[in-house]
Structure formats: C-alpha cells, structure tokens
Write a structure and sequence with these properties.
Shape of chain A: elongated
CATH topology of the largest domain in chain B: Cytochrome Bc1 Complex, Chain D, domain 2
Number of domains of chain B: 2
CATH superfamily of the largest domain in chain B: Cytochrome c-like domain
Order of helices and strands of chain B: HHHHHEEHHHHEEEEHHE
CATH architecture of the largest domain in chain B: Orthogonal Bundle
CATH architecture of chain A: Sandwich
Largest interface: A-B, 15 and 12 residues
Strand order of the largest sheet of chain A: 2-8-7-4-5
Structural class of chain B: mainly alpha
CATH topology of chain A: Immunoglobulin-like
Number of helices of chain A: 0
Largest sheet of chain B: 3 strands, mixed
Oligomer: heterodimer
CATH superfamily of chain A: Immunoglobulins
Strand order of the largest sheet of chain B: 6-5-7
Number of strands of chain A: 8
Number of strands of chain B: 7
Number of helices of chain B: 11
Largest sheet of chain A: 5 strands, mixed
Helix content of chain A: under 10%
Radius of gyration of chain A: 16 Å
Chain lengths: 108, 260
C-alpha cells in the first residue's frame, strides 16, 4: 500500500501574535461500515478516528472523526503564531492507519 | 385545476418533452462552465489547490510520472521529461486524430497506449485509480488553457457525437440535449442543470466522494435517463467525448474540477 497523500497548508512565515489558518486534506476512503458489497458482504468500517495538531510538541488542536465524515477529510483551524518551529499534524484510524505531516513555520 | 393553470402545466410539460428545435448548439457567447452554477463555497474549494481533493490524485499522478515501470523499467518522465512543461496544453487538445493509428484517441487512451506499448504494463482501463491519477496530473498542466480541438481532423467523430447527443434514449425517452441544451440553468431534482461542458475532467464529485472520469459521468447520465450503458470500450463514449470537447472549445480547462 502506498503512503496516504496529504496536502497541508501552513504559512511558512508569520508575525508574532498573528492568527494563522492551518488546513489539512488527506486521502482516505472513510468507509463507514454500514455498506454492503453487491454480493451482500458487509464492508468493514475503515475510517480515520482522530486528528491531532502539535505546535512544537504542544497540542493546539484535536478532532475526533466518525463514520458520517466524508472521504478525503479536509480540516481547517486557526491558531496564534507564537514561536518559530514545527507544526506536526497526525491522523490515526482503523486498521492501524497512521499518517504524520510536519511543516516548518518561521515567526518574526 | 382551472383552464389557465392546466395550460401552464401542459406548456411546461411540452417545454421539457419537446425542446424548441435548434439548428445548432448553445451560441458560443452563451456557453458557461458548470462552475458558474456552483455555490461560493464549492468554487473556493476548486480554486484552492490545498482544499481541492482532486489534487490528491494529481499528487499521486506526479509520483507515478517518475515511477519506473516494472517490466520495461521506464517511467513517463524518461521520455516526456518534466511533466509540468511537456504536458502543458496536452489535455486541452484531446481527443485528437492519431495519423499513425488512423483513429481518434482521447487522453486516457493516449496514457493507456504509452503504458502498454512503452512501459510494457497491463492495460488498466480509464476508471482505475492509477489511470485517473495520471490523467489528473496531465490534465492539471492545462489549467486555464482554452480547449482547442482539431475540428477538421475530427469532423466525422464530432458529427457522430452530436447525433448521439440529440438522440432520444432510455425509458424516459430523453436526449442529452433535453437537459443540457434546452433546459440548462433550470433545476432537476433540486440541482441546477449544467450545459454539460467537459472542462474539468477528471473531476472530483462530492456525490462520488472520489475523482471520476468523464465516462463515469456519462454512465451516471445514462442511468438517470434509464438508458442502457454503452458497453465498456464502445465507440459511442469516444464520439460523445469528442463532440463534448468540441462543444466546449475555447472554454478554459479546470481539471481537476470539483462538482457537487
């Protein structure tokens, strides 16, 4: 299986104290576990269950995902640019799904 | 129901059942992409590359572009170099007439031919994930470029496509033109009817929760008309695609577009 593809938008530069928008899009089927195949077999649930954003190791945002979330979930949130460093985004889900994306941010 | 209301009802019914005869398609100046009929939120989703889910396929296609194929050990990039340069405008001029093969080839067919003949891989069909990813990557390089179809070389295919477009079919006895020419801008089951311009394929449909090919979209239309699908690989699909691309000539490419 190829690694999941994610598209993350974190501003590369920000002024100290500025409110910045962070968005993240990840490729995932989000199979809700209620559907059947054409031969009547239940398709097992396969979804992302949680999303966490860390700013220099400190959690700044988290979300839980449920079967009603559509495929390829897009999430966007705001935070205050406090210091230069790394913003780490982490998705975990069913069947051992785990994806991590890191983005650098320079705060002046 | 009084007589006036009955008349309005019959007139409305006739307007749907018998669109005014048109010698030709929608006038060039009045053509618009389905993009214009979308909500502001959906337009923003398509326009922002970090929010457009179709870009996930473009990324996948970009990786496949330089991935060495197993048997021939050749990647797309080995012949075509940097895809962002060499593939510029390619999607906007397909389908095209291939002199060497003596037949009309669309973008998916061109990619498949490369895959089989140059890379020595098994054919995948236009709806496979890899095919969609490569098509999305190639089509992305034509963003905002006008569709330019070789009208002369494709004349017979365009005419065949037009015939299919205006032919009534299915249990509802509708043609493509009933919705996309005579009634565009009105609503069908709450959704606006587009003019049916093929500017953004392969595109991401929220309904599908996936990227899909034009052929998938055509099958969805046939299903809605309660008509039989053309068999896989039927010439009808290619004729319709050629006609639709010609019909959208001059409009800018949007691939990968987003639609509801």
């Amino acid at each position: 299986m190829t690694a999941p593809r994610a598209i993350v938008n974190v501003p590369a530069k920000a002024r100290k104290g500025e409110i910045i928008a962070i968005s993240a899009l990840i490729g995932h089927v989000m199979e809700n576990g209620f559907r059947y195949t054409t031969t009547g077999v239940l398709r097992p649930r396969d979804i992302i269950t949680s999303f966490v954003a860390l700013y220099n190791g400190e959690e700044i945002f988290s979300a839980q995902f449920f079967p009603a979330v559509a495929a390829n979930p897009f999430i966007s949130f705001h935070t205050v640019a406090t210091e230069s460093g790394t913003i780490q985004l982490r998705w975990t889900g069913d069947n051992g799904f785990a994806a991590t994306h890191r983005a650098k941010i320079a705060v002046e | 129901m009084n007589a006036a209301r009955l008349f309005v009802f019959i007139a409305a019914f006739l307007a749907v059942a018998n669109p005014p005869a048109r010698a030709d398609d929608i006038p060039l100046a009045e053509r618009r992409s389905g993009y214009d009929q979308m909500s502001a939120a959906l337009k923003a989703m398509q326009d922002d590359d970090t929010a457009n889910p179709g870009m996930l396929w473009v990324l996948e296609g970009e990786a496949l572009w330089s991935a060495k194929a197993t048997t021939a050990g050749k990647a797309c990039a080995d012949c075509h170099g940097d895809g962002t340069e060499s593939m510029k405008g390619v999607a906007a001029r397909h389908p095209a007439y291939d002199e060497k093969r003596g037949q009309v080839v669309n973008l998916a067919g061109r990619i498949e031919a490369c895959r089989v003949e140059r890379q020595g891989l098994a054919p995948l069909g236009p709806d496979a994930k890899e095919s969609l990813a490569l098509a999305a990557y190639v089509a992305r390089q034509s963003r905002n470029l006008p569709i330019t179809i070789d009208e002369k070389a494709l004349a017979t295919t365009i005419a065949a496509g037009r015939q299919l477009f205006i032919a009534r079919q299915g249990h509802l006895d509708l043609s493509c033109a009933h919705c996309h020419e005579a009634n565009w801008g009105r609503k069908l089951a709450g959704l606006p009817l587009s003019q049916g311009h093929t500017t953004g394929y392969p595109l991401y449909r929220l309904e599908w929760q996936s990227l899909g090919s034009l052929y998938r979209r055509l099958r969805a239309c046939l299903f809605g008309m309660r008509a039989a699908y053309y068999p896989p690989g039927a010439t009808e699909y290619l004729a319709l695609e050629t006609y639709l691309m010609w019909r959208a000539r001059g409009l800018p490419m949007e691939s990968p577009a987003v639609r509801p």
